[in-house]
Amino acid sequence: MTEDGTAGEMRRHSSLVAAGIGLSRLSGLIRDAALAFFLGANVGADAFRAALRIPNFLQNLLGEGVLSASFIPTYSRLLDEGREPEAGRVAGAVLGLLIALSGVLVLAGVLFARPLTVALTPGFVGDRLDLTVALVRVMFPGIGLLVVSAWCLGVLNSHRRFFLSYVAPVLWNAGILAVLIGLGATAVLDPAVAAAWGVVLGGGLQVLVQVRTVRELLRGTLRLSLDTRSPGVRQVLRAFGPIVLGRGVVQIAALLDLVVASLLAVGAVAVLGYAQTLYLLPIALFGMSVAAAELPTLSRLGPGADAPALQRRLDEGSARSAFFVTGTTVGFVLLGQPIVALLFGRGEFDAATTTQVAAVLAVYSLGLVPATSSRLLQSLLYATDDAKTPAAVAVARVALALAIGVPLMFNLDQLVVDPTAPGNVRAVTDAVSFTLTPVDAELREAADNQLRLGAVGLAIGAAAGAWLEYLLLRRAVGRLALSPRLGGGTMLRLLGAAAVAAVAIVPVSLLVADLNVVVRLAVPGLAGGLAYVGVCWSARVPEARGLVDGVLRRG
Questions:
Q1: Which residues, in sequence order, are bridge partners of residue 427?
Q2: Radius of gyration, CA atoms only, the chain
Q3: Distance in Å from the first CA to the final CA of the chain
Q4: Phi-psi category of residue 374: left, alpha or beta, with phi > 0 → left and psi -120 to 50 → alpha
Q5: How many C-beta atoms lie closer than 10 Å to residue 85's C-beta?
Q6: Which neighbouring-strand residues pair with 416?
Q7: pLDDT (tens digit, 9 = 90+) per residue, 242-292?
Q8: Given this model, what pLDDT does residue 430 score?
Q9: Is 514 helix (H, G, I), strand (E, B) or coil?
Q10: What's the CA gap between 269 and 40, in Å, rounded?
């Protein structure tokens, strides 16, 4: 395939993934807007976010990331070699093993929900703890269904059916919305409990929408089993172990974030959740889409692929994601307040919560570029049968994030969001002092929901960890006779365009500061966006050229 053909193929496939992810993330924003309206950042919001993250460990440990790295490479190669019956047997065995393992873990999660919740949310007491336990018991079966959905995604992606697998989560979010609005808004159920039952309904819908296509693709070859003896299954399991270890470290870190966040003021867990929804959007759209679209092709190239072919795909993928993510970073840092206010600022979600979520989002966004770049480097290592390196790098990233984030978290929790104070922030006590312990429990559980800034500390640690992860993965990929470049060699031009965009946004934001939130977002955003794309186009950034040419053709 020619270089232009390679780039075109990547754009088509990653665009399909991005379209599916975009629709699912849009539905996620609508879901979070509804949660913000009904729950704000109070006890119910904390309980729902915490309860979702506890069983979500199961999905993340056994789901999409692990299967993409262990199952897709083996399954794709069998298909490419014309060995469809063996590919079907491998798929059936992997599904059988996943159902058995996730079934045991779901049952354990339901039975031991209280001790599990107490261990993972040590700062929760009283009503907040009891509600979280109840929600965990409801959610565990729904999250178990998402593991099966991840298997469907692996099959669909290997057959290059990218759109359906990534748009399916729309139904998961739709299930949550339907039960939340249908039962929570009418006071039949507490809104947090209604949303939890929606998780179960949504999980079932997400599986059902994929099953028909998967059955057609595997017609006559799928045999559900627990076979671990065939060479293909053994190869999947050999990769599965190190990847689960790496993912497990990351997920344990996410749970440790929950542990320490539970020691912050009421609302911190919810605030982190709202900020992460926005932060993960560009990573999914522009990092995961490129990495997911490239993994089957990289797997077909295999460990023996020539360096120039891998280098070309690496540069093109990095340039594609970096163009979009760099511009997004500028928007999140400078326009975070109106973005959060427009999406979530109604109902129980007040101005103080908006300020806090915007601050956390701005800090998270400083790790966007390395986080998206790392997704492609991970896919490249997985495609060359190296699952151990990403696992080891995950350990280092988590260690740094916690080492930086936890001390900062406890100290920043002494600062309170207060729209009446200078800079919207004031100290919670008369004197702010360095500490490595949480603030007083009564202040954490205060009924007035003080919304301190401890969550910002965790975001700082996460951003630092993202940069370390990229640098270590870059070094590992360099051993393959490749030269990974941030932004595929376009990063300096992108940074120049980002600086020009910032210069355009700041004065325009000041001019419209007293107008409504739509104007405060749209006008500076348009000015900054045009400046960014214009400078990138002038600097011959390929993605900017392709974007402008596409718009002009449609016009």
A1: 415
A2: 23
A3: 30
A4: alpha
A5: 12
A6: 426, 452
A7: 666 666 666 676 678 788 888 887 888 888 889 998 998 888 878 777 776
A8: 62
A9: coil
A10: 11
At residue 451, the 3 state secondary structure works out as coil
Angle between helices 126-158 and 289-301 (to 10 degrees): 40
Question: How many other CB atoms are there within 10 angstroms of residue 82's CB atom?
Answer: 9
The label of the residue with tokens 């934001």 reads 509
CA dihedral over 394, 400, 403, 406, signed as positive or negative? negative
Instruction: Give the amino acid at 206.
Output: Q
Please answer whether residues 102 and 141 qualify as being in contact, where contact means their C-beta atoms are separated by less than 8 angstroms: no
Contact yes or no for 367/462 (Cβ under 8 A): yes
The residue type at 129: L
User: Residue 171 carries which side chain, given as an amino acid letter?
Assistant: L
Number of other CB atoms surrounding residue 447 within 10 Å: 8
* Helix intervals (H) in 112-190: 113-120, 126-158, 162-167, 169-179
Report the C-alpha gap between 191 and 273 in whole angstroms.
Answer: 17
Mean pLDDT rounded to a whole number for the chain: 83
Partners of 415 in beta bridges: 427
Q: Which of 160, 157, 151, 162 is nearest to 90 (CA)?
A: 151
DSSP symbols for 105-126: HHHHHHHTHHHHHHHH-TT--H
Q: Any residues with CB less than 8 A from the CB of 421 and at least 6 apart, and which?
A: none
Detail the DSSP E strand segments found in 402-549: 415-417, 425-427
72, 158 Cβ separation under 8 angstroms: yes
**How many degrees, rounded to 5, is the angle at CA 333 between CA 329 and CA 334?**
115
Percent of the chain residues topping a pLDDT of 70: 83
Asked if 221 and 84 count as a contact pair (C-beta separation under 8 A), the reply is yes
Measure the CA angle with vertex 505, ends 500 and 507; round to 5°: 110
Residue count of the chain: 555
List, for residues 175-189, the tens digit of each pLDDT value: 999 999 988 777 778
pLDDT in tens, 154-167: 888 788 777 787 78
Q: Which residues on neighbouring strands pair with residue 417, listed in sequence order?
A: 425
Q: How far apart are CA 73 and CA 173, in angstroms?
A: 29
10 token code pair:
């990547």
Q: Which amino acid is at 210?
A: Q
Strands (E), 337-472: 415-417, 425-427
Backbone angles phi, psi at 327, to 5 degrees: -65, -40
In this predicted structure, the answer to whether residue 90 has a pLDDT above a threshold of 80 is yes
CA distance linking residue 429 with residue 194, whole number of Å: 38
- What does the alpha-carbon distance between residue 231 and residue 228 come to, in Å, rounded to a whole number? 8
Burial bucket for residue 130 (CB in 10 Å: 0-12, 13-18, 19+): middle
- Find the helix packing angle between 268-282 and 307-344, rounded to 10°: 140
Residues 6+ apart with CB under 8 A from 43: 127, 128, 131, 266
Angle at 297 between CA 291 and CA 298, to 5 degrees: 70
Q: What is the pLDDT of residue 413?
A: 81
- Are the CB atoms for 76 and 300 separated by under 8 Å? yes
Q: Is the pLDDT of residue 23 over 90?
A: no
Helices (DSSP H) in 185-267: which residue ranges? Answer: 191-217, 231-261
Dihedral, CA of residue 489, residue 493, residue 495 and residue 499, to nearest 10: 180
Q: What are phi and psi of 432, to 5 degrees?
A: -95, 125
